[in-house]
Write a structure and sequence with these properties.
There is one protein chain. The chain is mostly helical. It contains 7 helices and no strands. It has one domain. α1 runs antiparallel to α4, α3 packs across α4 and α5 packs antiparallel against α6.
Length: about 150
């Protein structure tokens, strides 16, 4: 494996390691807590469990696809959307009402977490468009194709 391929592997793992293994394992080992957290947005327990399982699947399957380079652009697109949705659903900085009143309030903390989620999502979008100037066209032409991050 070339130095460039090793660097690509490290960077790809670095961008997904929040999800795989950490967040995925947290959902598995603290399942009841994760369900209660999901119930904040999806109140019937069966719906919360369903949404939690969808999130867990995204974290495992899409993160693995990104690291392995298998349908990695499509996986990155899904994870970018997941980051945006979790920001909107769980990092609602506007709700506590203390954003402007208290620099140490819950609103400010949620705001920074909201921005972190969106920034991480933007990083996944970068995997889709690449840094080689090819832009969005390869993804639009073949969304489930591999970007061949480790060579062909």
């Amino acid at each position: 494996m070339s130095t460039a391929a090793i660097a690509a592997l490290i960077v790809r793992y670095g961008i997904v390691m929040l999800f795989l293994p950490f967040s995925a394992l947290d959902k598995i080992f603290s399942f009841d807590h994760a369900v209660r957290q999901a119930q904040q947005m999806f109140s019937p327990r069966p719906l919360a469990i369903t949404m939690l399982m969808i999130g867990l699947s995204i974290e495992i399957v899409c993160s693995g696809a990104i690291v392995l380079g298998i349908a990695d652009r499509a996986a990155a697109f899904v994870v970018a959307g997941y980051c945006a949705l979790t920001a909107i659903l769980y990092k609602q900085f506007w709700k506590p009402g203390d954003f402007f009143a208290d620099p140490e309030g819950k609103g400010r903390t949620l705001f920074w977490d909201f921005l972190k989620n969106l920034s991480l999502g933007a990083g996944f979008l970068l995997l889709i468009i690449g840094t080689d100037g090819s832009g969005l066209q390869p993804f639009l032409d073949a969304p489930f194709a591999s970007s061949h991050p480790y060579g062909r």
